[in-house]
Model the fold of this input.
Amino acid sequence: MTVPSPHHAVRRPARRRRTTLHAALSLLCCSVVMTALPAGASAAPDPHTAASSTAPGAQAVAFEDTFDGAAGSAVDGGKWLTETGDNVSNHERQYYTGGTDNAALDGQGNLVITARKENPGNYQCWYGTCEYTSSRLNTSGKFTATYGHVESRMKIPRGQGIWPAFWMLGADIGSVGWPNSGEIDIMENVGFEPGTVHGTLHGPGYSGSGGIGAGYTLPGGAAFADDFHTFSVDWAPDSITWSVDGTVYQRRTPADLNGNTWVFDKPFFLILNLAVGGYWPGDPDGSTPLPQQLVVDYVRVTTGD
Done:
C-alpha cells in the first residue's frame, strides 16, 4: 500500500475469524500485528483482585497521561505518535487520520477517539474510496516498559462492526518481526459481544488463532459501553495477569505456551485504537449507530521501586 505519511501505515494479515493488525511504525521497517484469541475462549474471574493492588512496596509512575487540556486540542506529541492509513490485510473499513479530526481532548480530562462514517479528505482504502475515519495512537519511540502494572480507564463504544483495543508490542518489532516481537492485548472488544472483552498473548508458535488468552464477561448482561471500566495487566518476569475493574480473570506463564518461547522479557510500547469492520467484528450494518467514541480517562504504567 502507499504510505500516506512518513510515520505510519496500517495493515493486518488474516487469521481465522479475527485477524491481526500491521503498522509500519516510525523508525521501524517492518510490520506490526494486533490479534486476539480464538472465538469462544473464556475464563472465570478469580475471587482475588489484581496483583498490583496486593503487591508489597511502593509503586513509581513510569508513564501517565490524564489527557488534561483544552477541548479540541491534540494529544501530547511528546507521549504519542499518530498513525495514518488504511488496513487492507484485515479488511477493516476505516482510514486512520492525523490531526484532531478523530482524536482530541474533550476539555474534561479525557481523550476521545471518534469513528465516523465520512471521508472529508477523499481518502482511498483497499476497497476503494474509504467509508469511515478513525484514529490509532502509539508510544513507539516515546515510551517503552519492561514489566509493571499497565492500565487504562475508558468507556468503550458500541455497535456491530466496532472494534476498540488497548494493547502492546515488543519494541524490537523492526529487527525481529512479528510474532517474534511478542504482543500483549490488554483489552479488545467487538461490537457483537457488548458485555465481553478479551486479553491475549501472541509470540512465536502461538500467534493469530493460536494466541493464548481468555475473555471476561460482565455479570447480569451489562454492556461495557454503558460506563467507564479499568482494564489492566500486571506484568512480571514469567507471568502476566489480566484484570477488569480490579478483578483478575486470567494469568499466563511460560507453562501455558506448550514449549514455545516466552518473549515478554523486554521493552514494549503502548497502542490505543478504534477500528471499524474487519474479519473478526464484521462490518457495520443498519443497526450500527455512528459516530462512535472510545473515551479514555487515563493511561498509566507503574513499576516497583
User: Anything to note?
Assistant: Residues 1-56 have pLDDT under 50 and may be disordered. Residues 10 and 216 are 28 Å apart (CA to CA). Helices lie at 51-54, 173-176. Residues 51-54 form the longest helix (4 residues).
